[in-house]
Amino acid sequence: MIKEYSGIAPKSDLLLIQKLCDKLKGKSFVHVNSTREGGGVAEILHRMIPFLQEQGIDARWDVIEGDADFFDFTKKTHNALQGNREKFTKPMWDHYYEVNRRNRRNVDLKADCVLIHDPQPAPLIDFRPKSGRGRNNIWMWRCHIDISNPMPSLWSQLKKHVVKYDTAIFSVPKFAKSLPINEFIVTPSIDPLSDKNRDLSDEEIHAVGEKFNIPRDKKLILQVSRFDKFKDPIGVINAYKIVKKYNDCALILAGSPATDDPEGEAILNEVKEYAGNDPDIIILLLPPDNHKEINALQRMSDVILQKSIKEGFGLTVSEAMWKEKPVIGGAVGGIPLQIVHGVTGFVVYSPEGAAFRIRQYLNDPVMARTMGQQGKEFVRNNFLLTRQIRDYLAVWYCSANKGKHMIEL
């Protein structure tokens, strides 16, 4: 599989992956999260696991199971970590822990390296093997959420689990916290060879446009994201309404449900009501595996937004940039790491700012094309799957050797 990325990913990343895999060959590496479909974590793991397996790493991926109360709680946790005020009770915390306690029977934690993703399975650290296979393994907690300004009482509770890990990994430097364990920054990535990002023929793109009745005689503005208030779909509609006064355009809001996000349906209904009867606002709720359809929607669009008001990273930005599309993103989370303002896209702070930049792109196609081309090269050098695999392996190797002998690579 690594040969498939030759000529696409930087050669230095591929060489370092091979060297790290030689050092770690035969060792086991388990990832644990809370959903197999929906969201960037699941998308990347679908490709990362077979990649590692082909390189001689015993990689696997387990998913914890939970009931409605558990996922309601963890969604509140997610929102509170991003700064929302939420109410938590002791029974809620007890149930959260109990669900993880039950899941320890379903998840094989006996691996050389265990990487736990986000708050949902964080308490699994309490069930780290104390003897036999896996007792000396490395446990890493990976946070994909913007926790730069969390609800203090919530973070205080979650931190009790986090400090038991060997290593914590964050997406953006400002998300990192003061912890008595090793901390690393690893930005997320996209897979250029997946159905969501591979090249498509004109026929494939046209077929998707026909399937969803997308008007091809108008300029198309697109936002791809879960229907989540922090993705600001209402703000996107407001920006579109401003642009519509001057430019003939249509807006597409496309997203997929995630099994660990119980608020999605309510937000979707709110968005539909706010859109009203405007025939040029197209709202699409797609199955999580409709990757080619998302790819085609991005390729047929003229401007792509990720106007988040809170964001862990926002990989739809890199997806759009990989397709050489002009992008606009909220100045939050990991979006400013992807968008070099005025070079690979624009960051904005309001619907009015987004509308201004949309019109700038639509009225200056040469600038839009140039920034799209620069965006693709920026993604190639910073946000491809191979770079993230390289980083995870390097953090594992460094943690296992306590920072020593890295020169041997």
Please explain how this structure is put together.
The protein has 409 residues and is an alpha/beta fold. It has two domains: 2-189 and 384-403, Glycogen Phosphorylase B (Rossmann fold); 202-382, 3-Layer(aba) Sandwich (Rossmann fold). The chain is 42% helix and 15% strand. It has 14 helices and twelve strands. The chain has helices at residues 11-24, 40-54, 68-81, 90-103, 152-162, 202-211, 233-244, 264-275, 291-300, 316-322, 335-338, 351-363, 365-382, 385-400, and strands at residues 28-33, 58-63, 113-117, 138-143, 167-170, 182-185, 219-224, 249-255, 281-285, 303-306, 327-330, 346-348. The protein has a six-stranded parallel beta sheet with strand order 2-1-3-4-5-6, with helices on one face. It has a six-stranded parallel beta sheet with strand order 9-8-7-10-11-12, with helices on both faces. Strand 10, helix 10 (316-322) and strand 11 form a beta-alpha-beta unit. Helix 6 (202-211) packs across helix 9 (291-300). The protein starts with 10 loop residues before the first helix and ends in a 9-residue tail after the last helix. The relative contact order is 0.14.
Distance between the termini: 22 Å
Strand order of the largest sheet: 2-1-3-4-5-6
The CATH class of the largest domain is identified as Alpha Beta
Structural class: alpha/beta
Largest sheet: 6 strands, parallel
Number of strands: 12
State the low-pLDDT regions, or none. none
At the fourth level of CATH, the homologous superfamily of the largest domain is Glycogen Phosphorylase B
Contiguous helical run count: 14
The 3D shape can be described as: globular
Q: What is the assembly state of the chains in this entry? A: single chain
Strand percentage lies at 5-15%
- Tally of separate domains: 2
Radius of gyration: 21 Å
How do the helices and strands follow one another from N- to C-terminus?
Answer: HEHEHHEEHEEHEHEHEHEHEHEHHH
Overall CATH architecture of the largest domain: 3-Layer(aba) Sandwich
CATH overall fold name of the largest domain: Rossmann fold
Helix content: 40-55%
Average pLDDT confidence is 93
